[in-house]
Specification:
The chain is an alpha/beta fold and 283 residues long. The chain has a single domain, classed as NADP-dependent oxidoreductase domain (TIM Barrel), CATH 3.20.20. It is built from ten helices and ten strands. Strand 8, helix 6 and strand 9 form a beta-alpha-beta unit. Helix 1 crosses helix 2. The longest helix is centred in the middle third of the chain and has 14 residues. The radius of gyration is 18 Å and the shape is globular. InterPro entries: AKR, NAD(P)_OxRdtase_dom_sf, NADP_OxRdtase_dom. Pfam families: Aldo_ket_red (PF00248). GO terms for molecular function: oxidoreductase activity.
Length: 283
């Protein structure tokens, strides 16, 4: 998939909840390093973090992981709190994120969700950061259709290159209106929680006989099948989080899964697309 002309491997590395537990940091660091090592000459591996994650602990962990790979081979994403998204505070938050990440630029900087500051002010601050070279591009997260439409009316708002929202087989609400709007405007999707945090969001994917059968037929896990489903349009970046290096490798391998048209149809029949507007799902 592509974001603003950059070719990105369709499955990246999420880091929410990582970096907080001292006893897990070596395991988490290893998992990230193993994932980043899978980058190739044509597609960068994306790693997604935020100043919110552990109040900077995740960014510090990512910064350590970046030591093992050439910076230009990584697609680095971070996010700013809405209450830090003013013309005055955003540069400060960005500077602190860059320090924690031990890098001098971000490939992508996102407004984490809508806030009280006018979008015009936030966009102006993001544009200034881009002009300065501290970020290559910017986007948004947790924006619904109305939010995106408002953004498109703001000066330079159409320079937004991506929207990151919750999307998985059990949360298809964006397919009714948000995703069609984004595709029309050629705004790629970053899907967080693409495997619905296992079954912790109330789904029963692991015990679903249909998903089990299809996964078995392709010699993959149900989790890998869920990832393949999330990126099926080839315009989506999925960012599953894992602190286990073997799971990270399995996640990345899911990009190679190819289902038949009939198998896609069977899954769609079991988990149908929305037929009416739904509130934007947020975690």
């Amino acid at each position: 998939m592509e974001i603003a002309g950059e070719k990105i491997f369709p499955i990246g590395l999420g880091t929410w909840h990582m970096g907080d537990d001292v006893d897990k940091r070596i395991q988490e660091l290893t998992a990230l390093q193993v994932g980043l090592a899978q980058t190739n000459s044509t597609e960068k591996i994306a790693i997604d973090t935020a100043e919110m994650y552990g109040e900077g602990n995740s960014e510090k962990l990512v910064g350590r992981a970046l030591h093992t790979i050439a910076r230009e081979n990584v697609y680095l994403i971070s996010k700013v709190y809405p209450w830090n998204a003013s013309k005055r505070q955003l540069p400060r938050s960005l500077e602190e994120s860059l320090k924690r990440l031990q890098t001098d630029y971000l490939d992508l900087y996102l407004l984490h969700w809508t806030g009280e500051f006018p979008l015009a002010e936030t966009v102006s601050a993001l544009q200034a950061a881009k002009k300065s070279g501290y970020i290559k591009n910017w986007g948004v997260s947790n924006f619904d259709v109305a939010d995106m439409q408002e953004l498109w009316q703001v000066p330079d708002g159409q320079n937004c290159v991506v929207n990151e929202v919750l999307y998985n087989l059990g949360s298809r609400g964006i397919e009714f209106d948000l995703l069609p709007w984004m595709k029309k405007q050629q705004v790629p999707l970053i899907a967080y929680s693409p495997i619905a945090q296992g079954d912790r969001l109330g789904n029963q994917f692991l015990s679903d006989d249909l998903l089990q059968r299809i996964a078995s037929d392709h010699f993959v896990s149900v989790f890998q099948l869920l990832l393949a489903w999330a990126i099926r349009d080839e315009k989506t970046l999925a960012i599953p989080q894992s602190s286990n290096k073997d799971h990270v490798l399995a996640n990345l391998a899911a990009a190679k899964i190819q289902l038949s048209h009939q198998e896609w149809q069977e899954i769609a029949a079991r988990y149908p697309a929305p037929t009416k507007k739904q509130p934007l799902a947020v975690l």
